[in-house]
Design brief:
The chain is of the alpha+beta class and about 190 residues long. About 55% of the residues lie in helices and about 20% in strands. It has two domains: about 35-85, SH3 type barrels (Roll), CATH 2.30.30.100; about 100-190. It has a five-stranded antiparallel β-sheet, with no helix packed on it. Helix 3 crosses helix 4 (about 125-135).
């Protein structure tokens, strides 16, 4: 009697467990689209499909927009395959890689240079003024294959943010120089 009940329950449980495993495993087994990613030693990252690779010599990669770029292997840090990054759908009336996206990316990538600290320290207000009036240029690899609107936005965002950071560095150098000068004057005048 016990085995008769077990025979009627076991197939139902086995079917339920099999169905649960199938439902859980299906998304895990779904094929993820991959893309080739080339990391250059200068920090540039190129995503697309490798068209040609000559071991220890060169590599050619085609980006999503159809541009083809070639690099010497001595400039390549690493080559990987990564899940395809989905690009957000275009907003109505705005091209992908437009001015606004470029400006945000430029601001994100901009970095001030600590060298401006030395300019402020050594040249005082002139170093700070130079940092304010000079417009640093964005890195060219970040603009490869981008639309003209994106390039304009990126350049504006990069220049504004980097100029502000450079000015802060120079003002910091100027401030340290001024404090050091005051301390020097006070210590030498009190010693006499």
């Amino acid at each position: 009697m016990f085995f008769h009940k077990l025979d009627s329950i076991l197939p139902k449980k086995a079917l339920a467990v099999s169905l649960a495993i199938l439902i859980i495993a299906t998304p895990l087994l779904a094929q993820v689209q991959m893309e080739d990613v080339v990391y250059l030693k200068d920090g540039t990252i190129i995503r697309g499909q490798i068209l040609e690779q000559v071991p220890n010599v060169s590599i050619k990669i085609q980006t999503k927009d159809g541009s083809v770029f070639g690099y010497k292997m001595e400039d390549v840090l690493k080559i990987t395959k990564e899940p395809l990054k989905e690009t957000p759908p275009e907003k109505k009336g705005e091209k992908a890689n437009g001015f606004a996206e470029g400006k945000v990316d430029g601001e994100r990538d901009a970095r001030g240079s600590a060298g401006w600290f030395c300019a402020g320290f050594l040249c005082g207000i002139f170093g700070a003024g130079a940092a304010f009036f000079m417009k640093p240029g964005p890195p060219a690899p970040a603009l490869i294959g981008k639309s003209s609107e994106y390039v304009m936005g990126y350049t504006e965002g990069y220049q504004n943010k980097a100029r502000n950071e450079n000015t802060m560095w120079a003002c910091g150098g100027w401030l340290v120089s001024a404090v050091a000068g005051i301390v020097y004057v006070l210590t030498t005048s009190s010693a006499q």
